[in-house]
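Retry 2 of 3 after timeout on previous attempt. Resubmitting structure tokens to design endpoint.
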């Protein structure tokens, strides 16, 4: 058996019609710092961590539908964000520019959509 090479997931990248706009939303939501800032690529990171959340402009971006029905563009990823106070976090997300999803599958989780339509979950 061959030894596995060292690998670390450094982050997640979300496509968007405008990387700058989506990164600005997540900066408001999470309070993370800009790590890299280019016209069509922005990376954010938490003050004390190596993880990055990046955004790239995709001119042919198609907004996902959640929950997706037959023939709808489906999400390829969603973010799970742990919070201490669900009501407070929901109010903050809405103030930052998120939209509460019409379908909420769990009582202790709130699903929101970012400005590009990517779902994210707030949970205790």
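Retry 2 succeeded. Sequence:
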């Amino acid at each position: 058996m061959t030894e596995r090479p060292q690998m670390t997931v450094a982050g997640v990248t979300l496509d968007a019609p405008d990387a700058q706009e989506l990164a600005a939303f997540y900066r408001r939501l999470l309070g993370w710092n800009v790590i890299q800032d280019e016209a069509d690529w922005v990376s954010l990171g938490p003050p004390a961590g190596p993880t990055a959340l990046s955004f790239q402009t995709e001119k042919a971006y198609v907004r996902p539908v959640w929950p997706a029905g037959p023939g709808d563009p489906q999400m390829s990823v969603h973010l799970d964000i742990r919070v201490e106070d669900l009501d407070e976090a929901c109010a903050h997300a809405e103030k930052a520019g998120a939209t509460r999803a019409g379908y909420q599958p769990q009582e202790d989780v709130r699903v929101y959509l970012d400005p590009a339509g990517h779902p994210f979950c707030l949970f205790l």
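Attempt log closed. The chain has two helices and eight strands.
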